[in-house]
Amino acid sequence: MTVNSAVNDASGYPPDGARARRARELLQEERRTRVAQLTVLEHAEDAAPDQGTLARRESLQSTLEEIDAALARLDDGTYGLCEDCGEPVPEGRLEIIPYARRCVQCQQRRR
């Protein structure tokens, strides 16, 4: 057991807990922001959008899927656990990327 896991195991993200509620708020705010960006992008597009616009739209849609998956992990009690190694994702990483699926080490291995 790592120091990080001992700290996170003590309070974790139980679905009805305060930390889960805060994480849900962050995720919902991220979702609202991405939906607004996507809406603006779609309304600003010409009849034939350029490659940059298409790439931005795809990126926003992908992020929305990640956010929705993180909200599902909150509901099932697995939020904050790395999908690869099972160790807790550092709280600082979740503050920056609240929809992160993996710890930094596992994410770097995927690159």
From TrEMBL:
A zinc finger (dksA C4-type) spans 82-106. One of its GO terms (molecular function) is zinc ion binding. InterPro entries: Znf_C4-type_bac (IPR020460), Znf_DskA_TraR (IPR000962). SUPFAM superfamilies: Glucocorticoid receptor-like (DNA-binding domain). Residues 77-110 form the Zinc finger DksA/TraR C4-type domain. Keywords: Metal-binding, Zinc, Zinc-finger. This is DnaK suppressor protein. It comes from Actinomadura livida.
